[in-house]
Amino acid sequence: MVAMTAAVGARPARAAPSAARLRAWGRGAVGAVILVAIILQAGAAPFVRGLAAVSVPSVVAALLLTAAATAAAAWRWRILAGRLGLALTWPQAVSAYYRSQFLNTVLPGGVVGDVHRAVSHGRSVSQVAQASRAVVAERTAGQVVQIGLAVMVLVALGMSAYAPAVGIVLLAVVVACAGVVVAAAVSTRARDVVHRELDAVRTAFGTVGTVAKVVVASLVVVAGHVATFVVACLAVGVDAPPQRLAAVALIAVLAASIPFNIGGWGPREGAAAWAFTSAGLGAATGLAASTAFGVLAMIAVAPGAAVAAASAFHRRRATRAAAVEESS
Known about the structure:
- With 328 residues, the protein is mostly helical.
- The chain has one domain.
- It has 14 helices and no strands.
- It is globular.
């Protein structure tokens, strides 16, 4: 999300998507390297097993779970956008969120869809910077709740073996925050930017009721993704207690939020292989489950493709109408 903030925060609206795409392709390349390294190490068999495990019942379950998670995420976005003074209807929020998830799934980096969502909404209300803040706040809140939930669940289950994975994510957050603090300390301009963004955060999360709603929405989102991963585990035939499935699913879903991936693939597979090995289920099984999850996730956000196509059609039609009007 730091990269996304830089992409759409203080840049001109036209320049922001281009800069974000370049960074996304760079992060996607890292994800591709990770994925290739895993394939070379483990072979193609686990991935084939995961693909073959996808069935109609698992697809239906993924579609329903993703619909619930998307509705909750759209609600979270609407809450924070409204706090920042931005109009956003339910149909707009849900359709834009589906499109965002679809773009994040098929494009490298995992954030291009969010950048597009921010810029698109910002242009529709003539406030790109404020709309970008709403999207960054919404995604960041979701990740904070996800990390907190993972820590609490793993501690409650006594699964200390997974502590290093969560620790790495927390370390990355601390390093990012330290970078912001250092930049603010040495640069007056950076300090002004930090103060401005902190004011926006205080406005967005300014009431206890808002924070409670955002937390509830985020819990539903995480539960939907974790449940979808559990569906993938069951599809590939994983035989393990529910608490163990929940633990490995949390680790894999948490790793999927790392923005160094190619369409969601890369760190997720590495984390799944490690988590399944630590749980005594085998790395190959983890890779198979992660593969099934990746396929189910892509199918589940397919409605976003229709939204993206409709948006492109409307843009082309508006461009043609404008050209005809200018020529007449």
